[in-house]
TrEMBL record:
The chain crosses the membrane at residues 12-30, 97-119, 131-155, 167-189, 227-253, 273-296. This is Nickel import system permease protein NikB. CDD domains: TM_PBP2. GO terms for cellular component: plasma membrane. NCBIfam families: Opp2B (NF045470).
Amino acid sequence: MLLFIIRRILQTIPVLLGVSLVVFLIMQMVPGDPATLLAGEGATKQTIEMVRHELGLDRPIIYQYFDYVFHAIQGDFGESLRNNRPVLDEIMIRLPITLQLALASILITVVLGMIAGIISATKQYSMADISIMIIALLGISLPSFWFGLMLIYFFSVNLHIFPVAGWGTIQHMILPAITLGAGGAAIVARMTRSSMLEVVRQDYIRTARAKGLKEHIIIYKHGLKNALIPVITVVGLQFGALLGGTVLTESVFAINGLGRLIVDAIRTRDLPMVQGGVLIASVIFVFMNLAVDVLYRYFNKRIDLN
C-alpha cells in the first residue's frame, strides 16, 4: 500500500505540470495586457513597457513558464498583479472557505444520494423508486446557479429562514451546500441504485436470505459494502466537480472563497493568481483521486494495486 501511494504521488507530477502549462497558455491567449491594466488609463507607451519589463512579460513565453514552475516548486507562486500580495497568502485565506463548502456539499451528496439509492433499489418499481428517480433526473438537469437563486428566493427573500449571502455561520453554509450538493446527490442516487440492484441478485445474497438473516442486515452489512466500489468512484469525481462548481455557487451567494478569487483574477487578468488558484485546486483533486484508490482497497481486498 505504501509503495502504491508513493508511486501515485510521483505520477501526479506530470499531471500538475500539464495543468500548469495549459492554464499558462490559456491565460496568454486571453485578450488584454496586464501591464496596460496596471499602468492605468492614459499611461504612455513607455510606462507600459516599463511595467512589462518589471513583471517579466517582455521575455519569451517559454522562459516565463519555466521561471514560474521553478518558483512554484519552492512554494512561491509570485505576487498578485492587483494588490502586490503573495499569491499563496491570498489563496490560503480563501481556501478554507471553499473546502468547508465542498465538504458540506459532499456530505449532502453522499448521505442523500446513498439513502435515496438504497431505498430506490430495495423498493424497485414502487412509487418511492419512481419518485426518487424523477427527482434525481431533475437534480441532474437543473443548472446549479438557477437552483441557488431559487433557494435564495424562497428561503431567504420570502421565508427569511436563511441569510441571502455571505459566510461565517452554519446558516450561511446550508443553502450553498444544498445548491452544490444536489446535483451530485442525484448522480450518486442513480449509481447506488444500479449497483445495489446488481448486488442483491448475487448468489451470496440469496444464501443469506435462505439462512433467515434479517433484510436490513443483508442490505447494509453484506450488500452495501460490495455495492460501494462504483459509488466511491462517482463520489471522488463529484468532489472534483464540486471544486469547479464553487466558482458559480460562490458568485451567486457572494462567498469570498477560492472560486470567486479565481473569477476575479480572470476578470483582471491577474495571471499569477489564476495559475496559483487552479494549481492548488488541481493538487486537491489529484489527492482526492488517490484517496479513492486507497478506499477501493479497503472495501475490496481483491483489488490489485499494482
